[in-house]
Write a structure and sequence with these properties.
Elements: E1 48-51, E2 54-60, E3 72-81, E4 86-90, H1 91-94, E5 98-101, H2 110-117, E6 124-129, E7 152-162, H3 175-194, H4 198-210, H5 214-217, H6 222-245, H7 249-262, H8 267-279, H9 283-296, H10 301-329, H11 340-364
Antiparallel strand pairs: 1-2, 2-6, 3-4, 3-5, 3-7, 6-7
Catalytic activity: [protein]-peptidylproline (omega=180) = [protein]-peptidylproline (omega=0)
EC number: 5.2.1.8
InterPro entries: AIP/AIPL1/TTC9 (IPR039663), PPIase_dom_sf (IPR046357), PPIase_FKBP_dom (IPR001179), TPR-like_helical_dom_sf (IPR011990), TPR_rpt (IPR019734)
């Protein structure tokens, strides 16, 4: 990303400058939805037996340690009844990771917890769980709707986890504790940026955001809401900065739009959304974002530079289109010179025949 002195200067507290970010493939880190076909994904990796009723296949390796008992885990998952291929749960659609304290999970997620306890941060896996460790003999006829004695299939991404001896869930924390936990995650993410560990950094930001979900933010007012946004918004902006470098422009736009929903004049959010839109060819929308950002940071050279690049790009596109249309509708080419002798010969031959015919006709008279 651009050097710091080329970025809009209104950097939020705790936000990482773009020059500190390096790129690598982090496609699954944020728990973005994998391709969802008619059922669970097909996986060819080795089957690992975790329990008599639980097996695992790794789709993508994680890193670091595995969570221990009472760790607070944050994960995204999809769940299907294996026999009917009916999908009955999907946290990606809800856009809210599941929080699970290992050892304190619900009875119906016992098999899922066994699988999660075997995973590393960032791991993406497919779990097969017997009905005995799922919704049991009777199933569930409310939400989620699971048939009786249904073996289950889970597609899981472990975003990350907190190691806590007491296994304290977010719902049991005070407002200050939740904001403090999120802020520590944000700071950890910033440190990982500096170590050029982009994948792990993105996981930290995702977990920080998970501490401040919509249900939590809805309850906050006044100084507590301001405190929470001072942590949450920089996390979204840093995620957007990563996604720009990863060329995941639609997701970068989404992260910036979340910030602009709370702060419509945020210069960094406008600037980064403008860059993502420009990359997608949405030039009018990109220009609108850059112009609005320029109103609040008129001295910033990076905004002026992006507007200039946008204008140059449009000029180049117009010139290319003009050349294409000129080739299609331009004047017809002149006949090739090497074919002119044939025309001259035929003209001479015709004139010779006419002269001979005229002389013959005069003699006859």
């Amino acid at each position: 990303m651009e050097e710091v002195d080329e970025e809009p200067k209104s950097q939020a507290p705790g936000e990482v400058g773009e020059s500190e970010i390096v790129t690598e493939d982090a496609a699954f880190v944020r728990g973005e939805p994998p391709q969802d076909g008619d059922g669970p994904p097909k996986v060819d990796s080795e089957v690992e037996v975790l329990h008599d009723k639980v097996t695992k296949q790794i789709i993508k390796e994680g890193h670091g340690q595995k969570p221990s008992k009472y760790s607070t885990c944050f994960l995204h998952y999809r769940a299907w009844a294996e026999s009917t291929r009916h999908k009955f749960d999907d946290t990606w659609l809800e856009q809210q990771p599941l929080e699970m304290v290992l050892g304190k999970e619900k009875k119906e997620t016992t098999g899922l917890a066994i699988g999660v306890s075997s995973m590393k941060a960032g791991e993406h896996a497919l779990l097969h769980v017997g009905w005995e460790l799922g919704y049991g003999k009777e199933g569930s006829f409310s939400f989620p709707n699971v048939p009786p004695m249904a073996d289950l299939v889970y597609e899981v991404v472990l975003i990350g986890f907190d190691e806590t001896k007491e296994g304290k869930a977010r719902s049991d924390m005070t407002v200050e504790e939740r904001i403090g936990a999120a802020d520590r995650r944000k700071m950890d993410g910033n440190a990982l940026f500096k170590e050029e560990k982009l994948e792990e950094a993105m996981q930290q930001y995702e977990m920080a955001i998970a501490y401040m979900g919509d249900d939590f933010m809805f309850q906050l007012f006044g100084k507590y809401r301001d405190m929470a946004l001072a942590v949450k918004n920089p996390c979204h902006l840093n995620m957007a900065a990563c996604l720009l470098k990863l060329k995941r422009y639609e997701e970068a736009i989404g992260q910036c739009s979340l910030v602009l929903g709370e702060d419509e004049n945020n210069v960094k959010a406008l600037f980064r959304r403008g860059k993502a839109r420009a990359e997608l060819g949405q030039t009018d929308a990109a220009r609108e974002d850059f112009l609005k950002a320029g109103k609040f940071a008129p001295e910033d050279k990076s905004i002026a530079r992006e507007l200039r690049l946008l204008a140059e790009h449009e000029k180049a596109v117009y010139k290319k289109q003009k050349e294409i249309y000129k080739g299609i509708f331009g004047p017809r080419p002149e006949p090739k010179q090497e074919n002119n002798w044939l025309i001259i010969f035929w003209q001479w031959l015709v004139s010779l025949v006419l002269r001979l015919f005229k002389r013959k006709r005069v003699k006859a008279e």
